[in-house]
């Protein structure tokens, strides 16, 4: 593989890394299976593309995308905490609604940023950096985001969000409104996803209505790969794992594409990675994806109990 | 300190699963009272604690804490004044977080959570001192994840967490029932020490009749959602486990065969 492909994987891993951080925030920290991600990613891209096309500063577009992403997360959270919609469904509802909203924002299914000023055209103009400009920019963004998240998760508020994901009853008995914490976590998670959508749109020079499809599974696959490689024994390691996982995932994708796999089969491959990871008890034990497996197991166990009982009676 | 005034609670009213949990419970707990609550399964003991904690809203009646009517306060607001320890050691702590993080969360019970440092150095010192009092060696393991501790250690930590920001009232819901006898004795002993140290007003549900008579200064017996016995002072001192069993029998109107109570009474 040539340097440019390695460089490309690294760039993509960093830019999509913000999305994986968002998935980590909702799925792992908050233990909330949030499917808003698919919609929020496209939302970030759509807002950014339209905002830049209107002749605005690309960095402002990034900020705007994050705010919109946070709002999307808030809506999912309000559906759950206010209207008592199940977590999984609340995310799906927002995701589907966002499809229409994203089309409204873009006005068409695809917006090109080819001749526009983006944060990447700005760094590509710096000749000193050569081909490393986008990587350095991605790295800079990721370092800032990881750093902020690392500090946030150790504040009073951040610790309460983590405790809400870990043991809701306990943290409520310690006087924390867990509904508020879920809103905070979902807003941050989806702001990060939208940030990633914004970066990716500017990186590849277009926003597309379908670009967020399957994003949640790509994010999960990245988190799983990262935690298997780096571990999650401390907060810092867990965050590092997310970024490493994202880069490794994008590299694997580049490799299989190089080997001649059709790009249209990628989503199948990604799903399989997640299924295999969740199927292995050892991996599962180490990663402990409670929201994904436990509920299914509980259902299976209750079914088992009912069977036992009926067989005993019989 | 705590007044329950004619509290009624019915679960699933009108449905096939209708269950009357509390039928007119009136209880006046004085400051510093340590009340043990006994009764067979379904007597309403846990419901009583949950009604005080605000997990369930009462149907009728009033809950008054320190002259404030808290009947309509949601759980997380009441939590500012109430420390709780559950029966299951896993329920009182966050397994994926460290000992110091759990304690820091508990220390801020009832206070708003802001974007400030979650744990300060001064607090770490406080945690070490308090953990040392438990005598379990946890003071040297501040950054250990709670999930790695044993059930007894977790329950001891939960007792400390429930009391580290001094509550107006402490609720213990069979908090030693899930532990092995030796660990249970240790946890109970340190609970009593902490209660004495801070003169905490306490409600403690227990299935162990001997424990109910030896711990605290007052014993309340519940049956089918009512308080049928309220013992304190010299009268309580004269009461034996055998007496309590007899009263149980009278109350339920038939020979008392609840094995858990029989076992724990022996």
From TrEMBL, chain A:
It is found in: Cell membrane. GO terms for cellular component: plasma membrane. It is a multi-pass membrane protein. Its main location: membrane. GO terms for molecular function: transmembrane transporter activity. The keyword NAD does not apply. Keywords: Cell membrane, Membrane, Transmembrane, Transmembrane helix. The keyword Translocase does not apply. The chain crosses the membrane at residues 12-30, 59-79, 86-105, 132-153, 183-203, 209-231, 238-260, 266-283. It holds the Pfam family BPD_transp_2. Coiled coil: none annotated. This is Putative ABC transport system permease protein. It comes from Desulfofundulus thermosubterraneus DSM 16057.
From TrEMBL, chain B:
Residues 2-249 form the ABC transporter domain. It is a peripheral membrane protein. It is found in: Cell membrane. GO terms for cellular component: plasma membrane. InterPro entries: AAA+_ATPase, ABC_transporter-like_ATP-bd, ABC_transporter-like_CS, ABC_transporter_ATP-bind, P-loop_NTPase. It comes from the Bacteria. Keywords: ATP-binding, Cell membrane, Membrane, Nucleotide-binding, Transport. Pfam families: ABC_tran. One of its GO terms (molecular function) is ATP hydrolysis activity. SUPFAM superfamilies: P-loop containing nucleoside triphosphate hydrolases. This is Putative ABC transport system ATP-binding protein. It comes from Desulfofundulus thermosubterraneus DSM 16057. The lineage of its organism: Bacteria, Bacillati, Bacillota, Clostridia, Eubacteriales.
């Amino acid at each position: 593989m040539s340097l440019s492909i390695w460089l490309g994987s690294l760039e993509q891993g960093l830019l999509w890394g913000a999305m994986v951080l968002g998935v980590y925030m909702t799925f792992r920290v908050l233990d909330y299976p949030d499917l808003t991600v698919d919609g929020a990613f496209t939302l970030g891209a759509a807002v950014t593309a339209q905002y830049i096309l209107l002749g605005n500063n690309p960095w402002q577009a990034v900020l705007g995308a994050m705010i919109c992403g946070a709002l999307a997360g808030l809506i999912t959270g309000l559906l759950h905490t206010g209207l008592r919609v199940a977590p999984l469904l609340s995310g799906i509802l927002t995701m589907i609604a966002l499809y229409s909203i994203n089309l409204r924002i873009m006005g068409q299914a695809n917006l090109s940023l080819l001749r526009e000023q983006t944060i990447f055209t700005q760094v590509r103009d710096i000749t000193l950096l050569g081909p490393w400009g986008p990587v350095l920019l991605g790295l800079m963004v990721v370092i800032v985001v990881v750093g902020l998240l690392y500090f946030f998760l150790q504040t009073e508020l951040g610790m309460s969000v983590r405790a809400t994901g870990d043991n809701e009853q306990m943290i409520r008995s310690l006087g924390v409104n867990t509904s508020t914490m879920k809103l905070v976590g979902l807003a941050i998670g989806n702001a990060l996803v939208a940030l990633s959508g914004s970066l990716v749109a500017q990186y590849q020079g277009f926003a597309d209505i379908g670009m967020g499809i399957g994003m949640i599974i790509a994010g999960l696959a990245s988190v799983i790969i990262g935690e298997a490689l780096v571990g999650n024994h401390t907060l810092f390691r867990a965050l590092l794992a997310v970024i490493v996982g994202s880069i490794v995932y994008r590299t694997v994708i580049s490799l299989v594409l190089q080997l001649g796999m059709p790009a249209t089969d990628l989503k199948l491959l990604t799903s399989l990675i997640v299924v295999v990871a969740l199927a292995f008890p050892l991996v599962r034990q180490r990663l402990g994806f409670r929201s994904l497996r436990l509920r299914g197991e509980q259902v299976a166990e209750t079914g088992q109990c009912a069977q036992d009982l009926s067989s005993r009676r019989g | 300190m705590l007044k329950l005034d004619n509290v009624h609670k019915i679960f699933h009213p009108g449905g096939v699963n209708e269950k009357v949990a509390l039928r007119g419970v009136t209880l006046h707990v004085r400051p510093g009272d340590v009340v043990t609550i006994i009764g067979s399964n379904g007597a309403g003991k846990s419901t009583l604690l949950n009604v005080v904690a605000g997990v369930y809203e009462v149907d009728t009646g009033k809950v008054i804490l320190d002259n404030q009517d808290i009947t309509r306060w949601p759980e997380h607001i009441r939590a500012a004044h109430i420390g709780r320890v559950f029966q299951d050691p896993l329920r009182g702590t966050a397994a994926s977080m460290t000992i110091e993080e759990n304690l820091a969360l508990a220390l801020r019970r009832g206070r708003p959570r802001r974007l400030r440092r979650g744990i300060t150095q001064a607090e770490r010192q406080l945690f070490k001192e308090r953990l040392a009092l438990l005598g379990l060696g946890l003071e040297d393991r501040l950054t250990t994840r709670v999930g790695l501790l044993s059930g007894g250690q977790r329950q001891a930590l939960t007792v400390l967490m429930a009391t580290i920001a001094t509550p107006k009232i402490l609720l213990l819901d069979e908090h030693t029932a899930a532990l092995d006898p030796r660990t249970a004795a240790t946890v109970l002993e340190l609970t009593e020490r902490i209660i004495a140290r801070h003169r905490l007003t306490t409600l403690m549900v227990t299935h162990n009749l001997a424990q109910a008579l030896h711990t605290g200064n007052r014993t309340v017996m519940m049956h089918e959602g009512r308080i049928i016995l309220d013992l304190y002072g010299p009268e309580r001192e004269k009461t034996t486990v055998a007496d309590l069993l007899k009263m149980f029998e009278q109350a339920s109107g038939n020979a008392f065969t609840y094995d858990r109570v029989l076992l724990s009474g022996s």
